[in-house]
Every structure is written in C-alpha cells, then in structure tokens.
Amino acid sequence: MKNILITCCMALGAMSLRAQNTALEQQIGQITAGKKAEIGIAIIGPAPGDQVMIHAAPLYPMLSTFKFPVALTVLHQVEQGKLSLNQQIFIRKEELLDDTWSPFKEKYPKGDIAITLADALTWMMCYSDNNITDILLRLIGGTTPVQQFIGGNDFVIRNNEEEMHANWDAQFVNRISPARAAQLLNQFQQGKLLHKKHTRWLYKAMLGNKTGLKRLKGKLPPTVKVAHRSGTSFTNDAGMTGAINSFGIIELPGGKRIVIAVLIRDTYESFDDTETIIADIAKTTYDFYRQQQAVKH
After folding, report:
1. Where is the signal peptide (predicted)?
2. How far apart are CA 96 and CA 148, in angstroms?
3. Annotated active-site positions, please?
4. Has residue 196 got a pLDDT over 50?
5. What are the chain's domains?
6. What is the mean pLDDT of residues 280-284?
7. What is the DSSP letter of 297?
8. What is the largest CA-CA distance in the chain?
9. Which residues on adjacent β-strands are paired with residue 21?
10. Which of 50, 82, 132, 162 lies in disulfide reach of 45, CB 3.0 to 4.6 Å?
11. Is residue 59's pLDDT more than 90?
C-alpha cells in the first residue's frame, strides 16, 4: 500500500509539473508569436525535471556566448596544473587588433603590459573583450581543447574572434543548441564541471558582466542576481541580424535558481526589439517562478 501511495504521489507531481511547464510555455508563446526571427529557448527550473524547451534542439550561432565554454576550459586547465590564475600574461601591442570589440585596447592602446590570468578572464567574461579572448585561446591551444572539454554534437567551436570577423559566414561557425547551453549552465552551477573554488570564481565574474544588460537583466528588479553571458552578430544590408543571444542563471528569493538560454537567429526585428524579446521572456519566467514560490508557501 505504501509503495502504491508513493507511486500515485509521484504521478500527480509529474502531472502538476507538466501543467506548470505548459502554462509557462504558453505565456512565452505570447511573447514570441509573430516575431520575424528564429527563437530558441531552454529553461531549467529549480525542481528536478522542471524544464521548458521551445525550439531548443537546433543549433544556433554562439557569437560571444562562446566565451563561457572558453572560460570553463581555461579553468579546467588551471585545475589540471597547466595554468595558474596568478600567472602573468604579457599582452603585446600587435595582439591588440583594431576593428573588434576591445575595451582592453581602449584602456591600454600601446599594449606591452603584463596582467594575471585572472585579470584576463575578467576582461573576457565581464567586458567581453575579443582580443583578450583570442590571447586566452592561444594560451590553451586554440579552440580544439574547448571542443574536447565540452564535447557533444550539439556544441561546435572552430573559430576564434579574429576568424569570426573574417567574413559574414564565419561568425556563425561556432554553434550550440539552447538545450545544451542550459544544460551546460546547470552542470556548472551544480559544481559538476569545475571545483567549488573555480565555480564560485566564474559565477561571481558572470554576475559582474557589463554587457547585454538589456537582455536577461533588462526588465528584472535591479536587486535580482543574474550571472549571464551575451552574444551579438553583425546586421546585413537587408536589416537581418544573424544572432542576438543571452543565457545565464537567475537567482530567486531564497537562493533557488533558474537557468535560461534565449538564442535568437536571423532576426528582422529591430535590435532594440530583439533585446526586448529576451528581456520579456526572462521577466515572464522570473515572475512565473516567483508566483509558484508564493503558492507553495
């Protein structure tokens, strides 16, 4: 009898969770309906098995979201003893390329300066510096170690930032599915990819990200903690932007977390409107889980 009751409770719980997820999916559907863009969404809620996947299996261009798996790989090599967060990296002037996003170059235009590996990671993760990203990739042996560490058919990384700027198509070579992006974030926050010390370090760095602030964080209360990474492509002459992305971890009151990945490709919506789509999805998701918390209490 006890086993039957447990089974019945589990079945009822699963039905309730499916109904909950369907309700959130419908709310998000109202945001994305009629939009001139391909939108992939993956959400992992705080409860086991709690997830919403909308067009989450296809591969989408990563753009600068690829800096998260790069950072994971760098820290993995630190844990292997190949690198140290305190080691000095000399940034040569000729490595600071023009015509690319580089706040580091703006601050140190003459280059020829040494910074720590920890500082380099901060420039990449908090300021999305493209030149520092490529310096870090050269340090770890290119994109191949990143592909090997992350693995899977739903993650592809071949080009560094300089190569992504070579032509229109080159920026779309690095790809990931929204489902895999969310899974990667979830594994990260659960401490399954890095040791606790480095998980905390990278999580804090992502909380301090200064880019993509109108996306996941755009409509959330300023007190909400969001550890996130964004990515943006060029816009062509037809007004199509190849990719506008954001993924991250949103903290709920009480410490529980939501993982969310919104990857948008081939969007003919304006840049601001596309960012608003991401902000609206994040706000709807946050409010939904806040309401679920209130009901449970």
Report:
1. 1-19
2. 27
3. 64, 161
4. yes
5. 26-296 (3.40.710.10)
6. 98
7. -
8. 76
9. none
10. 50
11. yes
